[in-house]
Please model this.
Amino acid sequence: MDPARPSASSGPPSADSYAEVQASAEFAQLRRSYRSFAFPLTVAFITWYLLYVLLSNYAGGFMDTKVVGHINVALVFGLAQFATTFGIAVWYSRHANAKLDSRADAIKARLEGPGTRGADDTDDTDDTESTEATA
Model:
């Protein structure tokens, strides 16, 4: 089966279909795009976090340095951890929307083929049956 062509069956994709998609160049490009973003950022954030932990444990004098009033370096670094986490989440969301989601959706659509409905698809004719069943 060619991963670019949808399967003829209306059932779920077979294990072979998943293996063929995984071996495709399009999937390799999607994986490469994800990894080139996620891995360096993960390494950078873990390094930043470990720096904070190590400074807290072994450089107490530095971390206790007052910045403004009662705010010290440790508090600034600790709050920066939260800001960094939020910033990375926003950055990843933008990256996924711009470079990953459309490719993943295209691969998924070809894998599932025609006649296969996704969980987010709706059908107006089913609404009356589900409403009657709950009444």
Observations:
- Residues 116-132 have pLDDT under 50 and may be disordered.
